[in-house]
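Usage

Read records sequentially. Each one opens with the input sequence:
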Amino acid sequence: MTTLREIRRSIGNFLAINWNRLSGREFVPHPRRTIFVETSGRCNLACRFCAYPKSPPGALMDDEAFAEILDEVCAMGFSQIHPTPMLGDAFADPGLLRKFDAMEAEERVAAYSFYTNFILAREAQIRALPRYRKMNALYISIYGYDAETFTETTRKGARQFDKLVANLKVLEDLLEDWRPADGVHFNVRTKHTGASILAQGSELSDLMRRLSESGRATVTENVDYDTWGGMIDQSEVDPLGIQLTDGRNIYMRGACFKIFGEVQIKADGQVHACACRDVDGSLRLGDLRETPLAEILSSANPRYRALIEAQMRGEFSENCRSCSMYRSVYDHRPSDSGTLYDVLAFDEAFEILDRPATPDGKAAD
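and closes with the structure output:
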């Protein structure tokens, strides 16, 4: 059954996409600015709405591999790095701060940011964060506003919730004198009660409210959940009062901006066209153990080219067709909201995909 949210999304997409398409306007992210480099494919949680519990454990990227990949992406002109996993948590990588050190030392890296549930972080790691000048934003995913809702959401024990609260208290102390350039942001995914997360009266909600009211952090409550390509059933999230969004009921036309602006290198060296939803591997473009990145992320790569051209024709794999995160390159709204930057016309973006890599990365300008 199509939900009201899906109907509204579909109508909005239809109007925005076709108005811009017929007007000859396109909003393609610069394909050589931002890239996701997953250093950990492992997680400590088993959230009801996530595909991680149903997927095999991911890999960890060692420091040597990261250094080689960092050099490759910088040679291609990428300057914004996101060490955020598709399925996992950044702090599951024991060498995460060493990778931050490597990006700090690399002059071709302008900035980096990442998502984390912040539970696995050790106090020493948290207190070290202010020294990382290029870390321009910190995104913290919150799964429950008290021990009960945390356990119901993540299917993990209250000890992990207690560790989260303890870590956030350390962060709150740091934020008195330090803040990343683009801020600290809480994204809440938890049981829906009809009341704001900040009005729950728990220790955690009170802490987030203090940070929000003082301007030291933002708090966003997520309402958009999907099936992860059919892996998650509505019955699994019913205890949380969540309604899954089925992308198959949403109007789609034109390539998704994620296959230009959110490409991901996995911890095992595989390269995927989307850092968000590719649990079935249908968006796999190549493997760095077999092919250089400059060849994988090129219009000469038949897999990449075919994916882009198919989506521009309105043809999507089952994984993409069911995804609620889809945003068309004909839709101006993501770029208006600040989600995208360096937006180009399609032909301009495609021409950049033809350019070779150079040691200084300037060929991608």
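Summary fields computed downstream for this record:
- The chain has a mean pLDDT of 92.
- The first strand starts at residue 28 and ends at 29.
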